[in-house]
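Loading example: each entry is read as two labelled lines plus one structure line.
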Amino acid sequence: NAGVTQTPKFRILKIGQSMTLQCTQDMNHNYMYWYRQDPGMGLKLIYYSVGAGITDKGEVPNGYNVSRSTTEDFPLRLELAAPSQTSVYFCASSPRQSNSPLHFGNGTRLTVT
Amino acid sequence: DAKTTQPNSMESNEEEPVHLPCNHSTISGTDYIHWYRQLPSQGPEYVIHGLTSNVNNRMASLAIAEDRKSSTLILHRATLRDAAVYYCILRDGFGNEKLTFGTGTRLTIIP
């Protein structure tokens, strides 16, 4: 039972480069989320999705894009990496019911230099 | 517009109970109260949730005030492995999934 899988675990980008952070879940969850966590800070919601084909902005969406073509996958795209995007990124998924827990991946640590 | 407020940090002695408070004065009738914790260098993990009644599981207990405007996560006998950041969030029953976490409470366990 893999749960929520994020790849890569670590990445270093140069300013202006682009990359996609991958997130996949095998629990058939409708809802998926992307958070970022800066050092010593809490989690900030970037984007979320309530089902395939549906995405919505969170608290800090600028500089990111997402898509949700399948239930399992929710990739996060950085088009023009900036130092301010240096952070740890967590993906999470959940069933639809509000009394269900979120399941988090182990994170991707991204450094932009 | 934080929906929950928690103290930034707390300390507790090992093997003693810990009470972690959370205020959620604008909670609505259908909001579930969820608690998560984040161990160092890991993603958050689910701890417990409740709606109105107090809840117990193998990890912790959740005490919910009668007016539901506050709740307390109780670790009955803290161990060094409980040192983590604890987050309290609200999740409503109407599909509003813009779930915000805030900064949580950093719990330090003193040996």
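DSSP finds no helices and nine strands in chain B.
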